[in-house]
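User: Hi! I have a protein structure encoded as tokens and I'd like to know what sequence might fold into it. I'm fairly new to this, so please keep things simple.
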């Protein structure tokens, strides 16, 4: 696994001295105090650089490591031993530097180094372009002369190429600087630096300004300097440390044109399996919900049916009682009507009249009460009958729905079983292929048998390559817990825009690889 120290090892002694001088001399306090006196800070760096002139490389390496330790310690949150290994320190540096440019911690360490390098460089170029735009006439003349000197020293064919790219009939310091400033973007500036180096633009001053610009962006100065150190380290590797896709075991030329036929088929089957799973859960849920609803409706129907039977019995009883009352009271009615016929003019002293009248009125009231109760009973009965008819329609509809759901369930279960069988066949073949590739590519790592099928079922070829890159760097790392960034025995690896893989491990043994929600 490549660390920042591997990149530093590829730098010249002079470059390492410059890195030490920058780390030890550029601090928050002196950049804040000296923001309008960058020449003063630059002098401190140059003085420090000169003091290191006679030191051997071993001593320089020790000093560089110590300066990096000091920067990490100053950020807080770390207990760093003086004998900390380069790998352990590398992970701390990378974690903190990534914060400056919001680089996802779930990318492989090498991928993070590359992204920090790219973003720091773009930041650096942006700061440098602003400085060039603000040059006064005297400073501009100095810069034009610097560029002219570099052009004179450079390869003539490269200069002709640049002149063509810049669309300049005269390729000299004045024209080049004017073209860079007029472009309003960093593309031309970057091309000049790529070909001629950063010396012409005073790299140290650019580092100081970039570090201070990071402070204005509300990032810690120490983090900005760690990002600069990562950038310098990656420069030692030629600007890139991440393993190329074509070095990964799952890479194939077909990847350029899309997934292979087998992969596409597997993805379709996997997607269909997930859809059917969701569908079956939904159908089972609907069956359960409708079953419960049916039970409630049938129970209510039974209760209402019993109520109806009771009402109908009461209705029969009431009618029978009324008929008995009418029959038994017929004599009272006849006597009253006969008396009224025979005595049209009644005396207030006629006791027989009042007795017959009271008996007759009591009978009439009782019959009216029976009639009202019977009518009320009939209304309740009709309402309940209507309700029962509605309930029966609902029950019938629920039974029909349940029948359709059960038929749908059987149909989807059959399709699900067919998809599973096809999926097992396809995944089985691809997982065996993947197992052979990984066993050969990762001589140190071992894998649980389920890992291969899990990967081919859940991840595309491109996503698998991201996992493979992470696994390769993990295999080459001697401190597995540090690689997992404190997450015990779990590595979270970003494989696509919002898709992550969770890799569980024990030492060099990979236990499981599953899709993981970032949260």
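Assistant: Happy to help. Inverse folding works backwards from shape to sequence: for each of the 519 positions I chose a residue that suits the local structure. Here it is:
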């Amino acid at each position: 696994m490549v660390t920042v120290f591997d990149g530093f090892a590829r730098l010249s002694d002079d470059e390492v001295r410059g890195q030490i001088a920058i780390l030890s001399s550029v601090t928050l306090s002196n950049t804040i105090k000296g923001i309008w006196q960058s020449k003063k800070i630059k002098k401190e760096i140059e003085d420090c650089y000169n003091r290191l002139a006679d030191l051997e490389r071993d001593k320089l390496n020790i000093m560089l490591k110590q300066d990096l330790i000091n920067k990490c310690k100053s950020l807080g949150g770390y207990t760093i031993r003086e004998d900390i290994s380069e790998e352990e320190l590398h992970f701390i540096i990378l974690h903190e530097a990534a914060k400056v440019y919001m680089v996802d911690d779930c990318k492989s360490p090498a991928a993070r180094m590359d992204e920090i390098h790219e973003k720091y460089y773009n930041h650096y170029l942006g700061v440098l372009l602003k400085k060039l735009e603000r040059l006064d006439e005297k400073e501009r003349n100095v810069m034009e002369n610097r560029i002219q000197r570099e052009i004179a020293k450079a390869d003539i064919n490269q200069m002709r190429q640049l002149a063509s790219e810049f669309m300049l009939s005269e390729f000299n310091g004045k024209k080049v600087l004017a073209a860079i400033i007029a472009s309003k973007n960093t593309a031309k500036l970057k091309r000049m630096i790529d070909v001629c180096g950063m010396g012409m633009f005073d790299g140290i001053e650019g580092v100081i300004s970039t570090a201070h610009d990071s402070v204005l962006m509300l990032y810690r100065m120490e983090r900005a300097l760690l990002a600069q150190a990562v950038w310098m380290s990656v420069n030692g590797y030629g600007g890139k440390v991440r393993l190329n896709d074509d070095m990964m075991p799952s890479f194939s030329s077909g990847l350029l044109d899309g997934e292979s036929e087998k992969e596409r088929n597997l993805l379709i089957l996997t997607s269909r399996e997930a859809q059917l799973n969701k569908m079956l859960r939904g159908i089972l849920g609907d069956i359960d919900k409708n079953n419960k609803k049916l039970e409630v409706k049938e129970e209510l129907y039974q209760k209402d049916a019993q109520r109806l039977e009771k009402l109908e019995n009461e209705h029969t009883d009431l009618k029978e009682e009324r008929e008995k009352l009418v029959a038994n009271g017929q004599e009272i009615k006849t006597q009253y009507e006969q008396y009224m016929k025979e005595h049209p003019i009644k005396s207030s002293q006629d006791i027989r009249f009042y007795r017959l009248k009271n008996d007759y009125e009591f009978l009439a009231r009782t019959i009216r009460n029976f009639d009202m109760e019977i009518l009320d009973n009939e209304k309740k009965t009709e309402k309940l009958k209507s309700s029962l008819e509605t309930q029966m329609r609902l029950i019938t509809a629920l039974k029909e729905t349940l029948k359709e759901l059960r038929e749908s369930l059987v149909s989807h279960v059959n399709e699900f079983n067919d998809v599973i069988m096809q999926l097992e066949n396809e995944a089985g073949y691809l997982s065996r292929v993947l197992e052979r590739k990984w066993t050969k590519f990762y001589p140190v790592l071992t894998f649980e048998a389920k890992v291969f099928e899990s990967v081919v079922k859940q991840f595309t070829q491109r996503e698998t390559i991201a996992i493979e890159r992470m696994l390769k760097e993990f295999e080459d790392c001697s401190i597995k817990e540090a690689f997992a960034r404190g997450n015990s025995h779990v590595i979270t690896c970003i494989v696509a825009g919002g898709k992550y893989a969770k890799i569980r491990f024990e030492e060099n043994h990979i236990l499981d690889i599953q899709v993981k929600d970032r949260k």
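A useful reference point when you look it over: The chain has 19 helices and four strands. Feel free to ask if any position seems puzzling.
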